[in-house]
UniProtKB/TrEMBL annotation:
Its EC number is 5.3.1.23. This is Methylthioribose-1-phosphate isomerase. InterPro entries: IF-2B-related, IF-M1Pi, IF_2B-like_C, Initiation_fac_2B_a/b/d, M1Pi_N, NagB/RpiA_transferase-like. Catalyzes the interconversion of methylthioribose-1-phosphate (MTR-1-P) into methylthioribulose-1-phosphate (MTRu-1-P). The active site is at D244 (proton donor). One of its GO terms (molecular function) is S-methyl-5-thioribose-1-phosphate isomerase activity. Pathway: Amino-acid biosynthesis; L-methionine biosynthesis via salvage pathway; L-methionine from S-methyl-5-thio-alpha-D-ribose 1-phosphate: step 1/6. It is found in: Cytoplasm; Nucleus. GO terms for cellular component: cytoplasm; nucleus. GO terms for biological process: L-methionine salvage from methylthioadenosine. Pfam families: IF-2B. It is an enzyme of class 5 (isomerase). Keywords: Amino-acid biosynthesis, Cytoplasm, Isomerase, Methionine biosynthesis, Nucleus.
Amino acid sequence: MTLQSIKYERGRLQILDQLLLPDTTRYVDVKNSEDGWQAIKKMQVRGAPAIAIVGCLSLGVELYDKTFMSVSDMQSFVTEKLNYLVTARPTAVNMADAAARFMAFSKTLADGSLSPGDAKIRLIEEFESMLEKDIATNKLIGKFGGEDILSRSGSKPIQILTHCNTGSLATAGYGTALGVIRYLHEQGKLDQAFCTETRPYNQGSRLTAYELVYEKMNATLICDSMAALLMHQKNISAVVVGADRVVSNGDTANKIGTYQLAIVAKHHGVPFYVACPLTTYDGSKKSGEEIVIEERPAKEMTTVKGINCWNPAFDVTPAELITGGIITEYGVFPPSKLKEELAKYQNDKL
Ligand SMILES: CSC[C@H]1O[C@H](OP(=O)(O)O)[C@H](O)[C@@H]1O
């Protein structure tokens, strides 16, 4: 049993309010796309895949109660709301990826073969399919990543360092980078998982530590500033992190602090992996220079009034530092091969 960030039945969506974890477990209703936008913006729900899923399901719940005079009216409404949901947070690509796919899908529904009511249900069904697809994707990522790490580690104890939260609280379940740790644990091969606090939102100390303890994995929390000494003193088998947007050359935007972990891993010869589902790949961008980095409010970083704060929520790790490879649901690829490999599967999206 893993923690459930999203509770959904047709017509009703609830999210676990992650601002209150780990002290309080409270599910809040998301009744429409405005609620969805607010929940994403405030980071009550966060994590690239979860953002896309909650955004689309919030629209699905809104659609469920609405009646349209024509399919094209529904299509216009859906387009407007999907474009709005994309504006909640700029760095993760998953919501924009889903919006593009579902806007294209809603166009196919306007071929005259369906009534507005039937077309609406078809679209809601596609939104709903994201939940199962995401979990299946994450389990493949877990297996491919876990097996790749085991193939490199011989008989040495498997100790993994991860950053931020990429587990059941960032996805529909199982997780991406944390899915790799889950797989190793399920195989009885995980000796130790280390997680960073991940200042300033503390996704690591509040969310990942919560998930690891909840599932009784052997886990140790470190401050972000301890990562270099950890890799110097302990035999870390690999660093495995998630992603918010991976672009054509393999450059990766992820939680702030990822870039410096990659530099330290390179210095210590520790393989550095990025776990990235196809929905987090953005082939429209050539390099990480093109990725918009979200800056969050100073109040999320300090209580001291009057001090200036610089609070970028993400940084970009250049492809050459991703030495272990990019773990996808199709396999583990060197960054230089990612574009050509993922091009084979673009049709797997909706
Ligand atoms: C499953 S990867 C999630 C990805 O999103 C996190 O960012 P945030 O908590 O601000 O949404 C972090 O970058 C994770 O790697």
